[in-house]
Structures are given as structure tokens and as C-alpha cells.
Task: inverse folding
């Protein structure tokens, strides 16, 4: 009953609220301003940095806001456990425990209250407080379809690592939301970390394989945003040689180095771009062949500063692992692709270890004012 009372006030929550894996409605227009942010736990950031986040929302007012790593468990049968195979309602938060109810009440009283009736909100949540994504679409924009997995994950024989056994129309960790607008599809993902062992390598490889199949077979232009968890070139990390010496250094040579910057991941990332005829919008507008200064607005993830110790291993280092990738045919509409945080102090990160990124695309009918795009 308490969970029902908490959910009753969230009139803007539409994603999967009836338990289905997709929703369809008339398509109206295209988003122009798209912001993506790995929030690194939505309830903690609302508790600790809500004032800054609220100011950011009031200033930016994006047409679409995509959040990754919201870390809110999906609703399900009473007493359900992580990985138990029971059917979840991944578009609704779990509100069984006092902490879960407190977290959702905080989300409602701050974040959802601030966006009010201006946005439709789509959630895709995991079994436990892990992973999970959200997409907010400013009204009157209406996607014609919203889906929560990829065909390659839903088909028979697909990797069980990325398939919900109780409902194949959702990714089991809430890592995918795809919305179809008037002239392009918007795919928002939270890629799994490559990890440091062969099981984790296989999990990420299965993810990359499905993404490659998805972008290769698409019939519509695509904008793909999110924490893609890969810095594809040396210019995308602050200290390339240092990152290559971190973490796994075993026999699988192309997996050696910092997850997100291993040779194997980078090779697969570039092959996915080639397969889908996709362009890295930020790098197209901001070319670089060498790592830019570590303190500038060039890296979307940054290491935590020292807290209870004199030195923090990753402090002062950064990676560009959050991206906006667009189909080649959308390049004439690309106006901006920006990183909205900077410095060792993680200014603009709003409590997360990632900062938001922003892309702007003009409508197909109005290409005036577009940023010149180098060939």
C-alpha cells in the first residue's frame, strides 16, 4: 500500500508502468537538445547535490535528458531477490523496504517535482540497486515507440548475460532505452564495464557484438548517447601510457589495461562505428591527436580526489567514455557536441564521477546556424 501511495504522485512516469516492454504513441517532432549523464546513483546525488542539479536543469531545459546508473531496484514480487528469474516491472521502482520507499520519495519530491508536467519519464531498472537508466522527454515531443532492449538480446539463443528470462523485451540490468522520433531514433545505453577477468571480458564482448548487429541493421538514422565505457583513442584519456599499465595485465593481451581503454575494447568500438556508419560527434567538432590538458573540459570521467588518504590513485586523471554518436546522414544537422564539466575538482560533475554531455541538432527543415563540420 505504501508503494502504491508513493507511485500515485508520479504522473510523469510512463515507461513500462503497465509492465510491457515498449510503448507506442503518435510521433511528434525531433528533440534538438539532448543531454546525457551518468549520475552514479540518483538518490545519493539528490540527497547531496540537489541544489546544483536543480539549477542545472533550470538552466539547460533539454528536450531529452538521458541518465545512466540511476541505481534504483525494479518493482517485483514481494521478497524477490537479485537474479531470481522472477518477472520485474522494470519501469517502476521497488518500494518494499523503508530505504527503498525513502529513496523513491526523495526522487519524487525533488527531481520529479522539478520537471513537473513538462516531461514524460521512462525508467529501465535492474533487479537490485545497480545500473539502471532513465529518459526524460520534454512535452509535446512524443516518441512513436520506446523499447528497452535490442533485438539481438531478445532473440532465441542470445547471451543469457543480457537477457531477462522472465521478459525478453527488457534488458535485465536496465541498460537500454531507445525512443523513435520523427526522423531519427535515440538510443541511450549504459555499457557494462569490461572488468578484470575473462567472465567480465565475455560479458562486454557479448554486449559489443549485439550493438554492432543493431547499428549495422538499422533502417533509420540514429543518435546514440550514454556512458559507452570506451575511450577509443589516446587523445581520449589524460595519461595514455599510465592507463595501459593499470588493472588486468594477464595473458589476454588485448584486454590489458584500464577497463574502457584496452586495445580490444577500442578495436570493437571503432568497428561498431564503421558497421553503423556512425560518427563521434564530439571528436568531429573538436579534433585532437594528443591528450588535451588534464584540467580542461575534455574528459567525461575523472578520478576521485583524496578523502581519507593523502593520495588517490586516479585523482587528476580523466577519460572520455561518455559519447554522442550520430549517423553520417545527420551530420548536416549537428550544431554542438560539448562536455559540461572540467578540472581535477570535478566542477560540473554534480557529485558524480561523470559529467553531463550535451548535443544539439537542428530540425531537418532548419539547418541555419549549424556548426561547420570538417569532412
Result:
Amino acid at each position: 500500500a505504501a508503494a502504491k501511495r508513493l507511485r500515485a504522485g508520479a504522473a510523469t512516469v510512463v515507461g513500462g508502468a503497465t509492465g510491457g516492454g515498449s510503448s507506442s504513441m503518435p510521433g511528434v517532432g525531433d528533440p534538438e537538445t539532448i543531454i546525457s549523464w551518468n549520475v552514479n546513483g540518483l538518490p545519493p546525488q539528490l540527497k547531496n547535490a540537489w541544489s546544483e542539479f536543480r539549477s542545472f536543469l533550470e538552466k539547460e531545459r533539454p528536450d531529452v535528458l538521458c541518465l545512466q546508473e540511476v541505481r534504483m531496484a525494479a518493482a517485483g514480487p514481494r521478497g524477490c531477490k537479485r537474479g531470481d528469474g522472477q518477472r520485474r516491472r522494470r519501469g517502476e521502482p521497488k518500494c518494499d523496504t523503508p530505504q527503498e520507499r525513502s529513496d523513491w520519495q526523495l526522487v519524487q519530491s525533488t527531481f520529479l517535482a522539478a520537471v513537473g508536467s513538462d516531461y514524460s519519464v521512462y525508467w529501465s531498472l535492474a533487479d537490485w540497486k545497480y545500473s539502471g537508466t532513465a529518459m526524460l522527454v520534454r512535452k509535446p515531443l512524443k516518441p512513436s515507440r520506446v523499447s528497452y532492449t535490442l533485438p539481438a538480446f531478445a532473440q532465441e539463443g542470445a547471451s543469457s548475460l543480457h537477457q531477462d528470462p522472465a521478459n525478453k523485451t527488457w534488458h535485465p540490468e536496465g541498460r537500454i532505452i531507445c525512443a523513435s522520433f520523427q526522423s531519427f531514433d535515440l538510443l541511450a545505453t549504459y555499457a557494462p564495464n569490461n572488468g578484470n577477468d575473462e567472465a567480465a571480458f565475455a560479458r562486454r564482448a557479448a554486449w559489443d557484438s549485439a550493438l554492432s548487429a543493431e547499428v549495422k541493421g538499422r533502417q533509420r538514422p540514429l543518435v546514440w548517447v550514454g556512458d559507452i565505457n570506451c575511450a577509443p583513442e589516446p587523445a581520449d584519456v589524460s595519461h595514455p601510457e599510465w592507463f595501459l599499465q593499470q588493472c588486468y595485465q594477464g595473458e589476454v593481451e588485448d584486454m590489458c589495461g584500464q577497463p574502457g581503454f584496452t586495445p580490444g575494447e577500442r578495436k570493437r568500438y571503432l568497428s561498431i562505428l564503421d558497421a553503423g556508419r556512425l560518427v563521434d560527434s564530439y571528436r568531429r567538432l573538436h579534433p585532437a591527436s594528443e591528450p588535451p590538458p588534464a584540467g580542461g573540459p575534455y574528459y567525461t570521467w575523472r578520478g576521485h580526489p583524496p578523502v581519507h588518504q593523502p593520495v588517490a590513485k586516479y585523482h587528476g586523471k580523466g577519460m572520455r567514455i561518455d559519447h554522442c554518436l550520430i549517423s553520417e546522414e545527420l551530420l548536416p544537422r549537428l550544431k554542438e557536441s560539448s562536455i559540461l564539466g572540467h578540472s581535477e575538482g570535478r566542477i560540473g560533475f554534480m557529485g558524480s564521477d561523470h559529467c553531463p554531455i550535451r548535443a544539439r541538432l537542428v530540425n531537418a527543415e532548419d539547418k541555419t546556424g549549424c556548426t561547420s563540420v570538417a569532412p
